[in-house]
Design brief:
Growth Hormone, Chain: A, 16 helices, globular
Length: 413
């Protein structure tokens, strides 16, 4: 397999960039039609306690963690990346139907566990397709474009979910998943299999000058790369702090406005995603010129500020306004993470394994914080939970500033 150089990208036969746009847009619709809506629905309509909800979140998240890194390694090896996405979409569709029909503990646990496992296919698989289709040249802009379409999809599904929840019932929102899963599968299969450079897709391009693919490194390459270990720790802390914030805000709004619970959650999501979209485009256009680290520091620093601001007022307008800051932090994190991993794993052939490892750390952080935040809220209230999460975010800022190097290549196109 001949690997394209940074400055001479290979034309991909039959590949239309709009297909990759559609994949990112529609996958956001599939994943966004459950997420925080399930939390609000179970608490406000089905009488679940926050502790029980946190327990389900933790168990399902931790169950999925066991397969995240192996899934990344499998994506490195397989040439059936499109089929992996389509299969994961089918499982998500079935899980959403189960949630619509049953709301007992064990059914919800089974459905969310399946969703957690297959949901981690999408990030590495789409990033692998992107690298295998686009190459190194223009990768920063393409990753920003991927993130922008993902955020646009999240805005659309939030608005649609608000309409469906208001016009029908909160549970009807979950039926949007099978519909969008079919469309996402069609978009994925519209990418020609022959257009994907599978060696490049796993980051095996160190030998670009010789025209040969680099052999895959062992799994130990992840531990030997100190910047990668630091990045994993920061990703854990970021998501430990960030993951429960939107659900907590949604629960506060739902208790204050029970008849508008789904609509309020949609407003929060739209507010953040509307900011993430231009942020992702900006990051894609500036990451090669400004570097990765200074942009990432801004994203990390926003999180503790946001946590403190949530405690200053419980007015619905204020909470939604503060949620706009999520668009800055999460927008930067989502656009830059696959790019930083590509920088660090170049030539190892372990790009998707590394993405699985980062997803594992993110999943651990999000799963543990869901239970922790629920327990703090039940015992001390929402403000105490926000402040505790803000403290974890502050640690993430410090670690990243001190220990994480710049990963931008010395020469960029």
């Amino acid at each position: 397999m001949v690997i394209a150089s940074d400055t001479q990208p290979v034309a991909r036969p039959g590949f239309n960039p709009r297909s990759l746009d559609a994949v990112n847009f529609l996958l956001a619709d599939v994943r966004g039609a459950v997420g925080p809506y399930l939390n609000v629905y179970l608490v406000t309509q089905q009488g679940w306690s926050l502790s029980a909800l946190g327990l389900v979140t933790m168990i399902s998240g931790l169950a999925g963690l066991a397969l995240q890194t192996p899934i990344g390694a499998w994506i490195d090896r397989t040439r059936a990346k499109r089929s992996a996405i389509v299969g994961a979409l089918a499982v998500l569709a079935v899980a959403a139907v189960v949630i619509f029909i049953r709301t007992d503990f064990w059914s919800i646990l089974a459905a969310t566990t399946l969703s957690a496992v297959v949901g981690d296919v999408f990030g590495p698989a789409v990033s692998a397709l992107t690298l295998g289709l686009i190459g190194r040249r223009g990768l920063a802009r393409r990753m920003g474009r991927n993130a922008a379409y993902d955020h646009a999809g999240n805005v659309m599904i939030a608005l649609l979910a608000a309409l469906v929840g208001w016009r029908f019932t909160q549970s009807a929102v979950f039926l949007l998943v099978p519909a969008f899963a079919v469309m996402a599968a069609v978009a994925t299969l519209s990418i020609p299999a022959r257009a994907i450079d599978h060696d490049l897709a796993r980051g095996a391009d160190a030998a670009a000058g010789t025209g040969e693919a680099a052999p895959a490194s062992g799994w130990s390459v992840l531990l030997r790369c100190r910047p990668f270990v630091v990045f994993c720790l920061c990703a854990f802390l970021f998501h430990f702090a960030n993951a429960p914030m939107l659900p907590l805000v949604g629960q506060e709004l739902a208790f204050a406005h029970p008849d508008w619970a789904t609509a309020m959650m949609s407003f929060c999501i739209v507010a953040a995603q509307a900011v993430m979209l231009p942020i992702a485009i900006l990051v894609g256009h500036t990451a090669d010129r400004w570097g990765r680290k200074p942009i990432f520091l801004v994203g990390f620093a926003i999180l503790p500020v946001r946590a403190v601001l949530y405690t200053l007022s419980h007015d619905s307008g204020w909470l939604i306004a503060v949620q706009l800051l999520d668009g800055v932090g999460a927008g930067i994190f989502g656009a830059l993470t696959p790019l930083v991993i590509a920088d660090l794993m170049r030539g190892t052939g372990r790009y998707n394994l590394a993405q699985g490892a980062v997803a594992t750390m993110i999943g651990i952080g999000a799963s543990l914080s869901g239970l922790a935040a629920g327990l703090v809220v039940d015992a001390l209230g929402f403000d105490a939970a926000f402040l505790a999460l803000g403290l974890a975010a502050g640690v993430a800022v410090l670690v990243f500033a001190v220990a994480m190097p710049e990963t931008r290549p010395a020469a960029v196109p």
